[in-house]
Specification:
Largest sheet: 7 strands, antiparallel
Strand order of the largest sheet: 8-3-2-12-11-1-20
Length: 534
């Protein structure tokens, strides 16, 4: 019988986590150490200067969410970018501003939360020290890793609908280009070995001096000096104020299962709204990915998206009408609306593409100890402080530059995200772990993984491999494996569709299923990762 299982988008992270478990570490140790490896081998998807959400359930009954969303710098102002608006991404993942000041460069960063949170999680729930947990990541920084197709694909993403060509974020900053380009000034290619000795040095300093060095010590001084020199918003005060937040999970019931996810500003509320609405439909009888199924689920996606865009935000700054949104009356009314054939409209300024870059890891044992954690750099700022090696997040990108709205900029405010690491329980025991990277598509992918397992009895790998769709605008986006006859029927029923040329689509789902003590894992075929255990 498999005792442990890990699923992640990077084989290096999975293997490192398994090594921790074999050497006596617990699931927390494995998740955090593997998460640090992810920062070394997927350095634009995640990093110690990023943000995230960690969902923990332990066999002793501990059940907590550790929230570490980045916050707008204290120097930021609600109106500072209002005059620069060119548009909004069609799926709501950020705004297009002139000169891309919210997307690349020194003003696009929220506070760097990941390292602080990882240390807090280890100290409270793990057995390893941060120094011990960092060692596998240090090795990959020093010895290098072979650049994977997904990593290189992100680097070479072209400019789409106003978004920057990602090569800008890899080559415009001299300290960044020093790491990611060869002697000819070209980005390293797939299969080439990338080493980052500056990041290794930073990690060794943190291992020796402790995490406080990053937030109040010598490393913090290097960060703040770099920001001041280059017009950045982050200061020593921002760094010193970084702290993770422990919260209780947000819980709903679906088909006799307890579904547990994260609180706002994480995206768990979006998943809960969709599941509550879909509880009023017999999805299984519709048939998986039938026209009726896709249209029904898509309408639930659109309803939740509109609520996300208009009535969800950082609860410290915005009053979310939770009582209404979580009520049975609300879910029934929305279900009846769908049954009447009413189509919800998602209103956006205009359309633009979005880079969906994040990473995820799931770890579980057969005793009921489990972790599902999403952490991210947004789509990464392109900025590296010379000599430190790590890249900063660009999470200011998703704030609404229009004052007076749920997602508007405010000093110390966290942006609402789709990060939604979720655990489904069966008979009060963990049954399914799910999470993913993918911008606003995260919640839509996590939803479909849950439906695939609960409604259609799929195992973990089947759940992440099945053809998917996503509807975060007025267009239903389909993978190329959704039948064309199904698409035609959707169009006949008044839906605009977009067929992607890919057989698989974002988000890159990671799952673990724990069925009567037996563990099986799923790693999305669209990524470079794997799920394995022992």
């Amino acid at each position: 019988m498999t005792q442990y299982m890990i699923s992640a988008p990077q084989p290096e992270a999975v293997e490192s986590g398994l090594d921790i478990l074999r050497n006596g570490g617990n699931v927390i140790d494995a998740a955090i150490s593997a998460g640090l490896v992810q920062t070394a081998v997927d350095p634009q998807m995640c990093g110690i200067a990023g943000f995230g959400s960690c969902h923990i359930h332990l066999a002793d009954g501990t059940h907590k969410i550790i929230d570490f969303h980045g916050r707008a710098p204290l120097a930021s102002k609600p109106e500072m970018w209002e005059s620069l608006i060119d548009g909004e991404c069609d799926d709501g993942f950020g705004f297009l501003l002139r000169n891309q000041v919210n997307e690349v460069g020194y003003q696009c960063m929220t506070t760097p939360m990941t390292l602080r949170a990882f240390d807090d999680i280890l100290k409270k729930f793990g057995t390893l020290s941060m120094s011990e947990a960092l060692q596998p990541a240090i090795k990959y920084c020093e010895e290098g890793f072979a650049i994977r197709p997904q990593v290189h694909s992100f680097w070479t993403t072209p400019s789409i609908s106003g978004r920057i060509a990602r090569t800008r974020g890899m080559t415009e900053d001299d300290a960044t280009a020093k790491i990611y380009t060869n002697g000819n000034g070209l980005l390293y290619g797939v299969g080439e070995i990338l080493k980052n000795p500056d990041m290794a040095k930073t990690y060794r300093n943190i291992a020796k001096q402790g995490v406080d060095d990053f937030y109040t010590g010598d490393i913090a001084k290097q960060i703040s000096d770099d920001m001041a020199t280059n017009g950045g918003l982050l200061t020593m005060d921002d760094l010193a104020n970084c702290s993770s937040m422990e919260t209780n999970p947000l819980i709903t019931q679906y088909r006799g299962h307890k579904v547990s996810t994260n609180q706002p500003p994480g995206g768990g509320l979006v998943i809960v709204l969709m599941l509550n609405i879909l509880n009023h439909f017999d999805l299984k009888s519709m048939g998986h990915n039938s026209p009726e199924y896709i249209s029904t689920v898509s309408e639930a996606m659109k309803i939740a998206t509109v609520e996300k865009d208009t009535r969800m935000g950082d609860p410290k700054f915005f009053d979310i009408p939770l009582d209404e949104l979580l009520s049975s009356e609300y879910s029934l009314a929305m279900a009846e609306k769908i049954k009447r054939g009413e189509k919800t409209a998602v209103i956006r300024l205009n359309s633009g593409a979005d880079p969906k870059e994040t990473t995820h890891i799931c770890v579980a044992d057969n005793l009921g100890n489990c972790v599902t954690m999403t952490h991210s750099l947004g789509s990464s700022s392109g900025v590296v402080t010379d000599g430190l090696g790590f890249m900063y997040n660009n999470c200011m990108m998703v704030f609404d530059p229009r004052p007076g709205r749920s997602g508007s900029i405010a000093p110390g405010k966290a942006r609402f995200t789709a990060l939604s690491p979720t655990i489904v329980f069966k008979d009060e025991k963990p049954f399914l772990l799910v999470g993913s990277p993918g911008g606003t598509t995260i919640t839509m992918g996590n939803l479909q993984a849950i439906l695939n397992v609960v409604d259609f009895d799929m195992d973990a790998q089947q759940a992440v491999s099945a053809p998917r769709f996503t509807t975060t605008s007025n267009t239903i986006e389909l993978t190329n494996r959704i039948l064309r006859s199904t698409e035609k029927k959707l169009q006949e029923n008044g839906y605009k569709t977009k067929r992607h040329p890919y057989s698989y689509m974002m988000p890159i789902l990671q799952t673990i299923r724990i069925n009567n003590g037996n563990l099986d894992g799923g790693a999305d075929p669209s990524g470079d990762g794997m799920a394995t255990g022992f």
